[in-house]
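Reminder to self: tokens first, then the designed residues, so the page reads top to bottom the way the pipeline ran.
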């Protein structure tokens, strides 16, 4: 009996034997023989909390692979930077993504890449082997989102939220309440306070927002608790343009594909909506259409059987999500930047979120706390 090839734990450990074993087990290889595998780095859009690479497959001549046999794949591994890997272990990001692909992706009611392999060991080493989404177009958070793509993205995430509305799956202890987990909320809140002191003079924003950041620091943990109370569902947690692919040739239900499920969590679905709108729309476009976009999201929920979530509640949750998204990006700005593009992503994201917070008087929801 042939031994099962060991799973790789870094791009340089990917072997033809392992790829052949995985793809044959998935039923997509037929009689074809993989002759070579070329591994290449994905650029700055490949993610920041791990190593992501593209694998190009070469098949032996004379045995034509089946139509479904992939020509390229994407593999994900832990970050090679100690600081990033430490944060990932604290937040259990890798465990979350493996759990999502293993247990939830097939029934998530949102398009995701096909996953051929997902494994993690006690040390935190993990690997995901996924379909390559090329030639779909990856979103660019710095460039921002068109109105049509924003509508499609919110319709897509409504499918995810409606799927588990009121009854999110526990899956494992790795799937927390809110993106940071309520058991870690106090520590993350302390980091927010420290990082604000460190970056307050480096982050340009309206004075009306900057002066009230101490209110966000004080209200951060209560905000998380509110977003973890009903109606709760499964949320992507990092729903922004860099993590979305668009296929202009696909039917509407397949137009948007969501990747990077490391932040997946249980909370109110509006966390994804506020995060997406606040980060990805130019302020002028957002001001003109944010109410319409939220109402479109609600209509998509209602069309899927969710009828107990109204406009007033959604608007307050939207403002809470803007504040929590701002906290995420403020902490991210103060941390180690893996590349110049990500530093720019944080800068642009904070500016857009600050404008949205000011326009919607998001700090007003802090006074509504029960």
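Designed residues (370 positions):
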């Amino acid at each position: 009996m042939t031994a099962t090839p060991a799973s790789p734990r870094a791009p340089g450990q990917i072997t033809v034997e392992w790829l052949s074993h995985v793809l044959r087990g998935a039923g997509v290889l037929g009689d074809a023989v993989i002759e070579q595998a070329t591994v290449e780095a994905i650029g700055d859009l490949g993610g920041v909390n791990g190593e992501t690479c593209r694998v190009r497959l070469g098949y032996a001549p004379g045995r034509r692979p089946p139509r479904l046999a992939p020509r390229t794949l994407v593999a994900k591994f832990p970050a090679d930077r100690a600081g990033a890997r430490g944060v990932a272990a604290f937040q259990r990001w890798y465990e979350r993504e493996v759990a999502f692909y293993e247990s939830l992706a097939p029934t998530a009611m949102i398009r995701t890449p096909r996953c051929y392999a997902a494994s993690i060991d006690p040390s935190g080493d993990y690997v995901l082997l996924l379909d390559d989404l090329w030639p779909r177009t990856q979103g660019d958070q710095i460039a921002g989102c068109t109105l049509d793509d924003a509508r499609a993205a919110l319709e897509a995430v409504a499918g995810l939220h409606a799927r588990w509305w009121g009854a999110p799956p526990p899956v494992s202890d790795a799937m927390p309440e809110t993106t940071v987990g309520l058991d870690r909320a106090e520590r993350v809140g302390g980091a927010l306070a420290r990082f604000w002191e460190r970056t307050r003079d480096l982050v340009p924003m309206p004075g009306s927002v900057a002066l009230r950041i101490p209110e966000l620091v004080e209200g951060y943990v209560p905000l998380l608790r509110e977003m973890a109370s009903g109606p709760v569902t499964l949320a992507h947690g990092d729903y922004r343009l860099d993590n979305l692919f668009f296929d202009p040739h696909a039917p509407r239900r397949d137009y948007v594909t969501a990747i990077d499920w490391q932040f997946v969590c249980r909370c109110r679905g509006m966390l994804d909506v506020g995060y997406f709108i606040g980060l990805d729309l130019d302020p002028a476009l957002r001001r003109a259409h944010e109410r319409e976009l939220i109402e479109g999201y609600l209509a998509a929920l209602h069309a899927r059987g969710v009828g107990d979530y109204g406009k007033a509640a959604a608007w307050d949750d939207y403002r809470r999500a803007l504040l929590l998204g701002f906290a995420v990006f403020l902490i991210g700005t103060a941390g180690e930047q893996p590349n110049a593009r990500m530093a720019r992503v944080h800068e642009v994201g904070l500016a857009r979120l600050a404008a949205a917070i000011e326009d919607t008087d998001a700090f007003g929801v802090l006074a509504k706390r029960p």
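The chain has a mean pLDDT of 92.
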